[in-house]
Amino acid sequence: MFVTPLIAAPMAGGTTTPELALAAHGAGAFAFAAGGYKTAEQLATHLAPLRAAGHDFGVNLFVPRAEPLSATASAALAMYRSELRATAERYGADVPELLLTEDDPRVQDSWEEKLELLLADPVPLVSFTFGLAPAPLVTKLHKAGSQVVASVTSVAEALAAVETGVDALMVQHANAGGHTAAFLPAPAQPPASLSELILAVRSAVNLPLIGAGGIASSADLKAVLAAGAVAGAIGTALIRTDESGARPVHKDALGDPSYTQTAMTRAFTGKAARALVNDFVREHSATAPRAYPEVHFLTVPLRAAAATAHDPRALNLWAGSGWRQAREGSASHVIVDFLKGL
């Protein structure tokens, strides 16, 4: 499936640009396009330069929530909206009213439309996160000529993914920056490292595994490969690069020594994600409801205003556990440094 042991992970929200994917591929990595938060039309535009280049690449999609918010979650969401007003006022931002039905395109992340695009005009590989693509969809993608990868965070999720007929698994440890791919309850004693998680999944399934989460150096990549992965995926290591579309304030924060830790938080989107600990994380993590993507849309104007003010205190500064090793410069240089250390 992969001719390289290094994957440039898909980072939604604008961080993974076509330029970043092309630079990563040119330096020897397998590159993904990020389909999350895009309409089908936006995704088609995003993919056009990658298609034109003629290289193999992957596209990652978010699996939408299948059920409506519970009454409890809806009530918690309303309370959280009220809580956010004081923070939003500091930035001159609004906290929008949210009356999203389950079939709202924002809740579904344009799921059906993007699948129609990828079935009509296939890409080499499609990966899914936040849940599993149903087995009939996996079959359709195979018939269209695409290989399929499922993102998992535990042995239980890996076993469930195998039943859908996917070709490989993206095995994500909690050290990963940004959103967790988890869709089942976490085990009581999760593996302490990505290598341990790879070993556990390797003993349970017989599919190619890609390791993700906390890979910040060639040594980290070598450890994941030694544990049985065919490749390792990097994300945070590419955020500060020239080709990254991450906000400048996000890039700067990753290099700011005043940040000393990361934490998992639902404060920004309603789904657990690892970020640098800033004021917003400290003030709102305890009360943020499990309501994705509703919380995401609730905080979008606030985060945009903070970015405009170049104020990192209220931004989602996604960062994996190895964020201190992320550096500026060309993405190709980052990729080459990872590969030459193998």
From TrEMBL:
One GO MF term, please?
nitronate monooxygenase activity
Q: Which PANTHER family match?
A: NITRONATE MONOOXYGENASE-RELATED (PTHR42747:SF3)
What cofactor does this chain's UniProt record say it requires? FMN
Q: Which reaction does it catalyse?
A: 3 propionate 3-nitronate + 3 O2 + H2O = 3 3-oxopropanoate + 2 nitrate + nitrite + H2O2 + 3 H(+)
| Protein family per UniProt | Belongs to the nitronate monooxygenase family. NMO class I subfamily.
Full protein name: Propionate 3-nitronate monooxygenase
* GO terms under biological process: response to toxic substance
- Enumerate the UniProt keywords alphabetically: Detoxification, Dioxygenase, Flavoprotein, FMN, Monooxygenase, Oxidoreductase
Matches recorded under Pfam families: NMO
Q: What lineage is this protein's organism placed in?
A: Bacteria, Bacillati, Actinomycetota, Actinomycetes, Micrococcales
Record organism: Arthrobacter psychrolactophilus
